[in-house]
TrEMBL record:
Transmembrane residue ranges: none
Claim: Ribonucleoprotein is one of the keywords in the record: no
Domain of life according to the entry: Eukaryota
Keywords: Elongation factor, Protein biosynthesis
Record protein name field: EF1D factor
Record-level Gene Ontology MF annotations: guanyl-nucleotide exchange factor activity; translation elongation factor activity
Domain Elongation factor 1 beta central acidic region eukaryote: 3-30
SMART domains, A to Z: EF-1_beta_acid (SM01182), EF1_GNE (SM00888)
Family matches, as Gene3D superfamilies: 3.30.70.60
NADP is among the record's keywords: no
Similarity field: Belongs to the EF-1-beta/EF-1-delta family.
GO CC terms, sorted: cytosol; eukaryotic translation elongation factor 1 complex
Occurrences of domain Translation elongation factor EF1B beta/delta subunit guanine nucleotide exchange (ranges): 39-116
Amino acid sequence: IDLFGSDDEEEDQEAAKVREERLRQYAEKKAKKPGLIAKSSILLDVKPWDDETDMAKMEECVRSIHMDGLVWGASKLVPVGYGIKKLQIQCVVEDEKVGTDILEEEITKFEDYVSLGVGCGKGL
């Protein structure tokens, strides 16, 4: 006596086959999707040598750095003191491709414009 009202074993096997096929299709579809890409928003403080440093040229040099996973954003000049302004520039990086150490190294290569200090704040 079947208490749940299903006498057909063939129907149960058919339903199981359909369910397995759907699960297989779902797994294939999910495997094709790319995984999450971790990104960070970084605010860099780039300090010039003195008040006579060409800030437009310094920003041009910083923006000339191109890497896979790096996108430059907005920038502004922020007064530090004694007529000196620092460049604050925003960028978004893919964490696995670009790190803050690499960015700092690349920026400090512009020795004519950038003093040894490059600070950053990371978020997102």
